[in-house]
Amino acid sequence: MPRPRQQRSGRPPGGSGRPPGSQHDPEVQTRRLIAVVVIVVVVIVLALLVKSCSSSQTTTALKNYNANVSTLIDESTATGQTVFSDLKSGDSGDLANQVQAANSQLSKAESFSVPSQMAGAQSYLVSAMKLRAQAISRIADWAPQAQSKSTSKDAVYNISVGTSELYGSDLLYKTFVVADIAKALNGDGIPIGTSAGEQQINGAQVVHDLGWLQSAWIADTIGAQMSTAQANQNNDQPGLHGHSLNGVTVGGVTLSQTSTNTIPVSNARTWVLSVTNGGNFNEFDVGCSITIAGLSDTGTGTIAETFAGQPASCTVHLPSAPESGTYSVTARIAAVPGETNLTNNVITYSVQFN
């Protein structure tokens, strides 16, 4: 029998010659391309999600740090104000509690969770809190000795060192910590302000009255029995001690006690208090001050020596020009050791700054 004819191998009639599912098949290539695109899209989406989550976490961390600092500064400022109240009232026993509070606040600052963007602010914050704790400890150590004639001179001086350290902590905090926090918040696009949704940075400070930086003023304010060796010597002598405040001149204008005085703001930095030593003794390191009610503009000055029965003047420079407006301004001559009549040491004026 004849053999059946075998079909010759080769391309199928009209076909491509590629088996279905081959890597060269257009359909396979299309599916692969779609898969690659899908994978790329998924990777991009995941990356955006991770970035979004990371950004959200950073924003939250920055806000939390600012909130923690704000709360701490409120506590620390309250402690500092209590220290001044204790000094004025002579409650040196309570100062030990304020030392503990200051040390606790330092520990709290050191334990903060700190975003990398706030590293600079944190370093300055800890330094400021260390300075406050050191200052309050120094004040508490010396306050009891301010009431003794034999030790009050050194005590008042060391208290002034402590109050100066408190003021230094204010400068450190407001100059560096506040600035670095603002920089970090701005860098993350977080709005700063007092409106809803904005971050408010705490700018509080402990020392508002610069009189706390001067020994003579401190001695008068806390009732120290003597502020200098000469004053202590005079205090032991019977007789009349003290001064009377005669008037005040500012910007070349002598103020009136019976009407509102108008003073240009530009001329309101330097005040001259006219006084008379009405006692029987020369007095030393006599303090004077100007206080503007409702403003933080307080200035102090010192007369190195006044002479018995003679006039003198005390110059006060305000740290900044007062704001425009009408205010009650109090001029004061500090009491000296042995002075009993203080009714003529103070004059209050109505002044309009424009």
Q: Would you kindly provide a written description of the structure presented here, covering whatever features stand out?
A:
The protein has 354 residues and is α+β, with helices and mostly antiparallel strands. The chain folds into 2 domains: 47-218; 230-353, Immunoglobulins (Immunoglobulin-like), CATH 2.60.40. The protein is 44% helix and 18% strand. It has 6 helices and 9 strands; from the N terminus they run ααααααβββββββββ. The protein has a 5-stranded mixed beta sheet, covered by helices on one side. The longest helix has 64 residues, at 26-89. It is elongated. The mean pLDDT is 85.
Summarize the structure.
This protein is of the alpha+beta class and 354 residues long. 44% of the residues lie in helices and 18% in strands.
Properties at a glance:
single chain; 354 residues; Immunoglobulin-like; 4-stranded antiparallel β-sheet; 6 helices; 9 strands; 44% helix
Number of domains: 2
With helices defined by DSSP (H or I, 4 residues minimum), what is the helix count? 6
End-to-end gap: 133 Å
Strand order within the widest beta sheet: 3-9-8-5-6
The strand count comes to: 9
How much is the average pLDDT? Answer: 85
Give the topology.
Blueprint: H1 26-89, H2 95-110, H3 119-142, H4 152-187, H5 215-222, H6 229-235, E1 243-250, E2 253-254, E3 261-263, E4 270-277, E5 283-292, E6 298-306, E7 311-317, E8 325-333, E9 346-353
Parallel strand pairs: 3-9
Antiparallel strand pairs: 1-2, 1-4, 4-7, 5-6, 5-8, 8-9
Helix pairs in contact: 1-2, 1-3, 1-4, 2-3, 3-4, 4-5
